[in-house]
Amino acid sequence: MLKLYVVYNQPFDFPQSWVVREWRVNADGVQVARHCACAGTLEEARAILPRGLVRTERWEQDDPAIHEVWL
User: What is the pLDDT of residue 42?
Assistant: First the structure.
């Protein structure tokens, strides 16, 4: 199983927050974790992430609220 963490800037469900969501990729497909974490700043959102991850840039076709992805 691969876990990745997506950092969102003001997604539709939390329009005034930075949000971190864990996504899980396995043989059954892609699933989002039930819980998410909210933060007031990008730095606070990054502090929520587990240590040892690598940051990737968002893709042009990603949802505009996606700021970055961590693997």
Answer: 98
